[in-house]
Amino acid sequence: xxxxxxxxxxxxxxxxxxxxRTQDKNVAxxxxxxxxxxxxxxxxxVVPDVQDAIVEAVxxxxxxxxxxxxxxxxxxxxDDITVDAIAVALGVSVVVHPQARAVLERHYExxxxxxxxxxxxxxxxxxxxxxxxxxxxxxGIRWGNVFILAGVPHITAGMLDALTGTLEGGLPxxxxxxxxxxxxxxxxxxxxxxERAHPGVSIGSYPFFREGKTGANFVVRATDAALVDRVVxxxxxxxxxxxxxxxxxxx
Amino acid sequence: xxxxxxxxxxxxxxxxxxxxRTQDKNVAxxxxxxxxxxxxxxxxxVVPDVQDAIVEAVxxxxxxxxxxxxxxxxxxxxDDITVDAIAVALGVSVVVHPQARAVLERHYExxxxxxxxxxxxxxxxxxxxxxxxxxxxxxGIRWGNVFILAGVPHITAGMLDALTGTLEGGLPxxxxxxxxxxxxxxxxxxxxxxERAHPGVSIGSYPFFREGKTGANFVVRATDAALVDRVVxxxxxxxxxxxxxxxxxxx
Lengths: 251, 251
What we know:
alpha/beta, Alpha-Beta Plaits, 6-stranded mixed sheet, 4-stranded antiparallel sheet, elongated, MoaB/Mog_dom (chains A, B), MoaB/Mog-like_dom_sf (chains A, B)
């Protein structure tokens, strides 16, 4: 069973993430959305608002993945350089997209009009299409397999909504979780053996400390639902054999 | 005034981040800690639990930064492959560190003893030193400019505490924030002019939508406190001139 695996990468553009000022939410948001589209998030890079850094990351990742997403840096201010940097990466000019201009003209009609700064948000790499933005005026941008999204998470979410169902993907990755109040080191061998015995499945082990106790969740992932179920049964049996009552669904 | 800038990169190792299951907290945590050490977080990569991906990221980033940190994948289970992958990247063997073994023997003395799975956590790239872990048994690892830390955020925090003050850095980056209830597109030109007029300073503009209103915070960063203060004064004046009452400290 050698099914085609579709992959995506994400470049998070923003000094605010690298300075620690802002907690990124777009990695988890995009990853969850991609899972549903049958696409795996294969790699993420966080780069500063510096053209060379953006160009390097975009060009490294867009050729080895089916899709490349970026978040951040598409607003109207001087530190919003994403469109220019990606145009350099793609080797094309930056042009004002007439439809984006029309959208912004409408959006700002009752908000002081379309100034030069606002018109910046209609600029796209030549040949790009737009991604609808129901939340605020400025649209996202699609150029080939490159998707340029906003950085503010609820605007990013709206753009992902607009893209739902439009990208080709494979089988969605299914997952089930089993938890137990156990130190993962106690059942590490059983976990590894269970994974090796079931090709096509991955078992992640995620320890935590809560209420003064050690526990772990074990996440079983595969594209085949019956395989996931078999591995979950094996884990339930393995945990009980170790004297640890498993908790289906995780802790 | 050309001061030496010290940089660090971070490789986050973990399928759980790329699957969207777990929200990363270590980027923001490490970034904030590095700021205090006078070191800038220059780039982050999130890679899966796959040896080739870890090797590529570690080798790309450790040569072009003063320090390279990794988080995740140093536990006792089959998916914890960080130490082996980094040893491959460094071109050295993996050995059991006698002091790490002693730490684990003590830690597990009353917890069922040091099993093979637990002994995995004493393995290090040959030539490594240990980083103390007050939280749980297994230590972090330092090899040259590479720092291998835990993925569970409060354990990572303990290891960073142990490293505080031990790394050479430059002047800490200072920052002050000014907020206003304004669409950033209204004052984009003033922001850009203010930044250009003050070499050595960066002004980040971070828009948000709250209580049905549009606002933005402007973060002024530089290593020179007097310069930061001058730019904040300029921003306060610029915002008032635009008819928007600034809020010092941000919104």
